[in-house]
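Dig into what follows:
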Amino acid sequence: MSTSTTPNSQTPPRATIFVHIPKTAGMSLTKTVVEQYKGRVHERMGGNHDLVALLERPAHDRARIGLITGHLSLENPLSDCDVPSPEILTMIREPISRVISLYTYMRRMPGHHLYPLIKEHNLSLADMFTDRFTDKTIEYDNFQTRMLAGLECTHKHFGAITEADLQQALSRVETMGVVVGIQEYFEASIALYSHQLGWDESKITIHQTNTGEELAKKAKRKDSDEYQPTDADLDAIRTHNALDIQLYETLKDHAISEFTRLNLKGDFPRATARPSFIP
């Protein structure tokens, strides 16, 4: 976890939280979010261990925070501070493509903690769902539902997420007023965030890293570096992400209705270079 701020910055009247679900164009979106909230005290989460550490800090210290981004479950770490409830946004992705992307990333990134395991055992995507490895592969098991259902659900063992957890995730999204974008509709989602959160559109730039348009182009390329799943892989993904599929369809339908109602198209300028790693 890291903290940054700008000299003479003031605590904003309402903090903003970006829940970055892995492999949902979060790097692209993080850069856009950070550009909107320059000058705020910014906490970067590397995982729920950072969220737990943040919750242990004194309320007066947390009350200074104006922006929280990163891999954290849907929680309000400022709930016991004397500040307004934060704005919250997230991005979700079609679950089958998300899991394929996750596996592709893990098997080609030597720095990832599961890279040695995949290489040593020559693991296929379907192998990631077998009992031998599921203590290490929780991100393959209804992980979008887990993150939106709250911190408690991310600690449940592989296969333990239920319909009740799905309903909890949907309920939390509604009651906490989360603005949900859809990766396959990335540009329209940016427009939705801008409309709902009052963004300065002159500061919005689309950073092209697995946005909806980029995903469509990648799918058409025969030489794509994306892993090509087998039938066994796809069956395993569907079995262990049935709740994520329901979550995605429900939230996608709602988002599309908002895009239509508000006539959102997301015609923003595009960056000429891919975003670099954001610490």
The mean pLDDT is 89. Residues 242-262 form the longest helix (21 residues). The chain is about 45% helix and 10% strand. The beta strands are 2-4, 16-19, 42-45, 67-70, 87-92, 179-182.
